[in-house]
Design brief:
The structure is a single chain. The protein has helices at residues 16-26, 29-35, 53-72, 86-93, 98-105, 137-175, 211-220, 226-239, 249-262, 283-286, 295-303; strands at 80-82, 109-110, 115-117, 199-201, 205-207. By secondary structure, it is mainly alpha-helical. The longest helix is centred in the middle third of the chain and has 39 residues, at 137-175.
């Protein structure tokens, strides 16, 4: 709950006043008796004889936290708690001599009247009386709706002002004559007109092929007879209607003629290409086997051979 929350500072165990309280407790006889067993393990002058000083600082930090929790609900704005004595601090934290140790370091003071004063109590936490009450879910939702409506009103006002400024600018532009824009630049050469589109349909065939196109294609693909290749293309397109939905028919014709030229032209010998070369001869084609001889014929041939010796 928000009312039970206090702010615990980081490194509170290492604060100089915390260390001073722990040092005062180490030399306190009632603290030594509380920590040790007088029969089995007795402390003579200091509790550090049986325990480390770090453990004493940890106990001090825990006791301070418990005390602040308890005082947080009753302390006033003047940091005073009425009808409270030092012994009450020992009872609250469960450590004998703790109130006197806090008095030694100045974390608590005796008031003239009945009660104690905790100087600078807000250094470690905020008293409950000074803390604002937490908002309910309904209050937070109402604030959100109010903020949203405020943003909407501001946005609408800005949009209205922008609309009025835009209308004023449009009215001003109506009275400003437009600058004359030249329709053509005599110094700039006119762009060449695009070539007429070549088209094909199943009923009308090829359309839009000009004499200039025929001359250009004849020079580029001399082996292709244009009329025959166009007739072949028409037959192929009618046999493949799903491929007839083309838009760039000029590109289709050029690709058809290019493939025809690469294969040797329209009137080519079947199975040959103009760049075909005869297959190279291999050693098997030049090999001629020797005539067969019987063993007697081979012996007679060997006897007739004369061997010469090198000098």
């Amino acid at each position: 709950m928000a009312g039970d929350w206090i702010r615990i500072r980081r490194g509170i165990r290492q604060l100089p006043k915390t260390v001073a309280i722990a040092r005062h407790l180490c030399a306190s006889r009632e603290f030594m008796n509380w920590w040790s067993d007088p029969v089995r393990q007795h402390c003579v002058t200091n509790v550090t004889e049986i325990v480390t000083f770090e453990n004493v600082t940890r106990v001090t930090a825990c006791a301070l936290t418990e005390l602040w929790f308890a005082v947080n609900d009753v302390v006033g704005e003047d940091c005073r708690v009425s009808y409270m004595a030092l012994s009450d601090i020992d009872d609250i934290v469960g450590v004998p001599g703790f109130g006197q140790a806090m008095l030694e370091v100045g974390w608590v003071c005796l008031h003239d009247e009945k009660g104690l004063v905790f100087p600078n109590f807000s250094e470690h936490n905020v008293p409950s009386k000074m803390r604002s009450e937490p908002k309910s879910a309904a209050a937070r939702a109402k604030e959100y709706r109010d903020r949203k409506r405020g943003v909407s009103r501001v946005t609408a006002r800005h949009e209205t002002s922008r609309g009025e400024e835009k209308r004023r600018e449009e009215n001003i532009e109506e009275y400003i004559p437009a600058a004359p824009v030249p329709t053509s630049d005599p110094a700039r050469p006119s762009r060449s007109r695009a070539k007429p589109a070549v088209s094909w349909s199943s009923d009308d065939g090829w359309q839009g092929i000009t004499p200039a196109d025929r001359q250009e294609w004849a020079a580029a693909y001399p082996g292709a007879v244009l009329d025959q290749e166009l007739a072949k293309a028409t037959a192929w397109l009618r046999a493949n209607p799903q491929r007839a939905g083309r838009r760039n028919w000029r590109r289709f014709v050029v690709g058809w003629l290019q493939r025809c030229q690469d294969k040797g032209g329209t009137n080519r010998t079947p199975g040959n290409r103009p760049d075909d070369k005869p297959a190279p001869t291999v050693w098997r084609d030049r090999y001629q086997p020797a005539p067969y001889r019987t063993p007697k014929e081979a012996a007679a041939l060997a006897a007739g051979l004369k061997l010469t010796e090198e000098d």
